[in-house]
Design a protein that fits this description.
Keywords: Ribonucleoprotein, Ribosomal protein, RNA-binding, rRNA-binding. The chain is mainly β and 103 residues long. The chain is 0% helix and 65% strand. Strand 5 and strand 6 form a beta hairpin.
């Protein structure tokens, strides 16, 4: 059984006990989080596809940790003008373990 959920502007295919990395969510490690925007569910009875969302279906998970991604360097240089700019960025992420798919 798996589901396709939408969070943070992206879609994820999840099943029970999957660990996914999503955009930052509120909550301390160990707390429960519920994803209500479910686009599709597949189980023993078949496949349900929403238009665009399914009602009465939700996916629950547990926050494992808050982490940060790799550093991305934005370097701009204008030749022969002694002009350059270097900026770094690290995106914040939340690691979530999917516990249950209801519905």
């Amino acid at each position: 059984m798996f589901a396709v959920i939408k969070t943070g502007g992206k879609q994820y295919r999840v099943a029970a006990n999957d660990v996914i990395t999503v955009a930052t969510l509120a909550g301390e490690p160990g707390s429960a989080v519920t994803f209500d925007q479910v686009l599709m569910v597949t189980n023993d009875n078949g496949t349900q596809v929403g238009a665009p969302l399914l009602s009465g279906v939700s996916v629950t998970g547990e926050v494992v940790e808050h982490t940060r991604g790799e550093k991305v360097i934005a370097f701009k240089k204008r030749r022969r003008q002694n002009s350059r700019r270097k900026r770094g960025h690290r995106q914040d992420y939340t690691v979530v373990r999917i516990t249950n798919i209801q519905g």
